[in-house]
Design brief:
Layout lengths: L9 E11 L7 E6 L21 E4 H11 L3 E5 L7 H13 L3 E6 L3 H5 L3 H8 L3 E4 L20 E4 L13 E5 L5 E5 L3 H8 L4 E2 L4
This protein binds iron/sulfur cluster (SF4).
The site of iron/sulfur cluster has 14 residues, from loops.
Pfam families: Fer4_12 (PF13353)
Cofactor: [4Fe-4S] cluster
Organism: Actinoplanes sichuanensis
Length: 205
């Protein structure tokens, strides 16, 4: 589930967004990691299954970038954050030391993670709000923000980020070169109708 710890571990990063309002409460930074061993049928991010690719980045550099972004915290998603628990535990701990919040998405069930190794325990320890459980495409969640399917559990590991109400948001970013990128959640039919014909990257949890 996790690599061994070093003093400044490396995280294989698929994407970093400095500011978004679509990946958790408030304005947050978001880090998508490369690699997922769970591979849920219907996952929106099959390009993140492989551990090849992404950009190896030190925990120290990621912490600095989150803090410099000036947001209320960071959201970790993927890919599977707990497949890189050592590196992300270091990132989450550093972000928390800076007074910011940490939200982590995982395809693992919370009871399974509770039996994990010390790196898994460290990432849980540094997470305020965990959204846990695999994506189940026949149980789409149309009611709760950020959750992809109704089986996924919101686990409040601290008293911060208690407010998980509000709308699901889909955030569309268009660069000056015409690239279109999405953050947030919408069901597949809505996405297909919205994006028909557009050259889009679709990072999802
Ligand atoms: S939904 Fe998440 S846990 Fe499931 S395959 Fe996709 S990235 Fe992995």
């Amino acid at each position: 589930m996790a690599a061994s710890s070093t003093s400044d571990p490396i995280v294989r990063v698929a994407r970093f967004v400095d500011r978004t309002i679509a990946e958790g409460p408030g304005e947050r930074s978001a880090i998508w990691v490369q690699g997922c061993s769970i591979r849920c049928p219907g996952c929106f991010n099959p390009h993140l299954f492989t551990t090849r690719g992404g950009t190896p980045t030190s925990a120290t550099d990621l912490i600095a970038r989150v803090v410099a972004a000036g947001t209320s915290g960071v959201t970790l998603l993927g890919g599977e954050p707990f497949d890189q628990a050592a590196g992300l535990a270091a990132v989450a701990s550093g972000v928390r030391r800076a007074g910011l919040t940490v939200m982590t998405f995982t395809g693992y069930a919370y009871p399974y993670l509770q039996g994990g190794d010390r790196d898994v325990a460290a990432l849980l320890e540094a997470t305020d709000l965990l959204v846990a459980g695999p994506f189940e495409q026949d149980r789409l969640d149309h009611d709760r923000p950020w959750a992809g399917s109704t089986n996924q559990e919101f686990v409040h590991l601290t008293d911060r980020l208690r407010d998980v109400t509000g709308p699901d948001r889909l955030e569309v970013t268009v660069t000056t070169s015409g690239d279109v990128a999405l953050n947030g959640w919408a069901d597949p039919e809505t996405l297909d109708a919205l994006l028909d014909g557009l050259p889009v990257r679709r990072p999802r949890r």
